[in-house]
């Protein structure tokens, strides 16, 4: 693809200058948020940087078309969510799985108490908390992506169910259903990482 | 007038199906997305059911843990490098 000739006349240079200035504002105000989101979705810092790059590149291309119908951050989350799907398709990752609600709800008296500390932490609990955060990160990346994205957007990025629906193209009902399964899965993994022989909570998607 | 609350002795004297019905709605309960009458029913159940009570507390703490979780930030040099790469890629579109 031939590179577009830039700065061939003063009009183009001025337009490009304005576009770069608008981009710089967007980048400065939102890069931290988008990197945090990308890390939570991708897991590795390198993949997160790739996602941030894809997101801001797409944003740069469509900045002039942004009409302010949603907040800038919701618009960027939407771009990032689509970029994440594209990158996943390219890498041909593992097939998406469904979470079985029944497998995540205990039926017997053998329910294991989860060791999630409360608000005030003793020094011992602080150590436990650090370990727990590692377990949370591991549990998050065991989640199938469509559930992970809902959990990250709602419980980590703090979007409302309606906003998550707008980002992912889902109804609020679907967001809430996925969110509940994702939370139960993470809870199960946090309580169960010390256990043996825990129930399998994911089942393949039936065609 | 003060009313003394009778201590409630928790025991599992209801069906598992009732618990499962409650457990399916707990996220909406914790997010305050349910009608008041349903919340009252859930609270009544939790007062009587030790298993569901533990479950709701651990789910709440799981959600709090997610809300408080943090990740590493980009360094200033990484930010500058990424910006340069994005603008360079944009100029070749």
Question: What would you call the shape of chain B?
Answer: elongated
Count of discrete alpha- or pi-helical segments spanning 4 or more residues of chain B? 5
Please give the oligomerization state of what you see. Answer: heterodimer
Pairing-aware structural class of the strands and helices of chain A?
Answer: mainly alpha
Distance between the termini of chain B: 77 Å
Largest interface (CB < 8 Å): A-B, 51 and 38 residues
Task: Indicate the mean pLDDT of chain A.
Answer: 79
Structural class of chain B: mainly alpha
Number of helices of chain A: 8
Structure description:
The complex is a heterodimer of chains A (207) and B (93). Chain A has 8 helices and 2 strands; from the N terminus they run αααβαααααβ. Chain A is mostly helical and 207 residues long. Chain A starts with 9 loop residues before the first helix and ends with a strand. Mean pLDDT of chain A is 79; it is low at 1-7 and 192-207. Chain B has 93 residues and is mostly helical. In chain B, 66% of the residues lie in helices and 0% in strands. Chain B has helices at 16-23, 26-30, 36-48, 50-68, 76-91. In chain B, helix 3 (36-48) packs across helix 4. Chain A binds chain B through residues 1, 3-4, 6, 20, 23-24, 27, 31-32, 35-36, 39-40, 45, 49, 52-53, 56-57, 60-61, 101, 105-107, 109, 111, 113-114, 116-118, 132-133, 136-137, 151, 155-156, 158, 161, 176, 179-180, 183-184, 186-187, 190-191, and chain B through 16, 20, 23-24, 26-28, 31, 33, 51, 54-55, 58-59, 61-67, 69, 71-74, 78-79, 82-83, 85-87, 89-93.
């Amino acid at each position: 693809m031939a590179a577009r000739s830039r700065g061939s006349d003063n009009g183009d240079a001025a337009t490009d200058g304005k576009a770069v200035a608008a981009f710089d504002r967007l980048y400065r105000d939102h890069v931290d948020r988008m990197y945090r989101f990308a890390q939570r979705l991708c897991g590795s810092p390198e993949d997160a940087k790739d996602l941030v790059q894809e997101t801001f590149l797409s944003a740069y291309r469509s900045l002039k078309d942004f009409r302010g119908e949603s907040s800038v951050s919701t618009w960027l989350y939407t771009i990032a969510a689509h970029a994440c799907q594209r990158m996943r398709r390219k890498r041909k990752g593992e097939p998406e799985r469904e979470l079985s609600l029944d497998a995540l709800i205990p039926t017997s008296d053998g329910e294991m108490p989860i060791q999630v500390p409360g608000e005030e932490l003793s020094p011992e609990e602080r150590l436990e908390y650090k370990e727990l955060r590692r377990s949370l990160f591991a549990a998050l990346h065991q989640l199938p992506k469509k559930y992970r994205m809902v959990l990250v957007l709602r419980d980590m990025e703090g979007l409302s169910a309606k906003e998550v629906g707008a980002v992912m193209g889902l109804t609020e009902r679907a967001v809430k259903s996925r969110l509940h399964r994702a939370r139960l899965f993470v809870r199960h993994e946090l309580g169960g990482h010390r256990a043996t022989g825990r129930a399998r909570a994911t089942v393949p998607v039936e065609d | 007038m003060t009313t003394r609350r009778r201590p409630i002795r928790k025991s599992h004297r209801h069906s598992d199906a009732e618990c499962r019905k409650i457990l399916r709605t707990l996220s909406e309960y914790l997010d305050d997305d349910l009608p008041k009458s349903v919340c009252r029913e859930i609270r009544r159940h939790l007062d009587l059911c030790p298993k569901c009570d533990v479950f709701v507390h651990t789910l709440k703490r799981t959600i709090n843990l997610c809300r408080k979780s943090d990740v590493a930030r980009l360094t200033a040099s990484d930010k500058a490098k990424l910006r340069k790469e994005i603008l360079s890629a944009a100029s070749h579109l």
